[in-house]
Amino acid sequence: MITDHWPLFGLRLHTPRLELRVPDLADLAQLAEVAAAGVHDPGRQPFVVPWTDGTAEEVARSTLQFQWRMWGQWTPGNWSLHFVTVHDGRIIGTQALDAREFATLREVGTGSWLGRAHHGRGFGTEMRAAVLDLAFTGLGAQWAVSEAFADNAASYGVSRKLGYTDDGIARHVVRGEAVVGRRLRLDRAGWAAARTVGVRIEGLAPCLPLFGC
Questions:
Q1: What is the pTM (predicted TM-score) of this model?
Q2: CB contact set of 1 (below 8 Å; sequence gap of 6+)
Q3: Among 63, 71, 68, which residue's Cα sits nearest to residue 31?
Q4: What share of the chain is helix, strand, coil (3-state, %, to 5)?
Q5: Is the pLDDT of residue 162 over 70?
Q6: What is the domain partition of the chain in residue ranges?
């Protein structure tokens, strides 16, 4: 079985409404279709890398290529774990957890997107809560970091709800213009104090060496 060689395919996170899992090829096909249908208002670009600028076919293909690239580049010292988010049997978006030198730094980052049809329903909070539980409970993280552009109130609101505090700014060039990003940081105590979403982790034990644990 594929999980004998790549146990991440057996990793599942369960919240009251969602399942997060590492996608197989059929899941990736659905994810690409969600991306192609639209992730954000075309008039705004919420990502540092403007991967959603393009035709529907180009966005779908780049979604697949990015996921495959993350699989191929994985090492215990530098990994990026991308789940698909599933609600009522349908894939609605993706949630990532990544780290560099995790065994030493004990710090993770997060990133996510949802199809536009699924915005405004609290899914963003629930799916990030799931990977934070994986990080702090499952992997023994000490810190989690995130960043959102200054005008991305939805992402910033999720971070504040989950206990993050401000951690400075970063400046980027997006579509040829300077954009300010707000950095945020969450420590273990802040996560525990703000924790309200129940999360069940399945299939983690055989994956731990891949995370450097």
A1: 0.91
A2: none
A3: 63
A4: 40, 30, 30
A5: yes
A6: 2-42+51-211
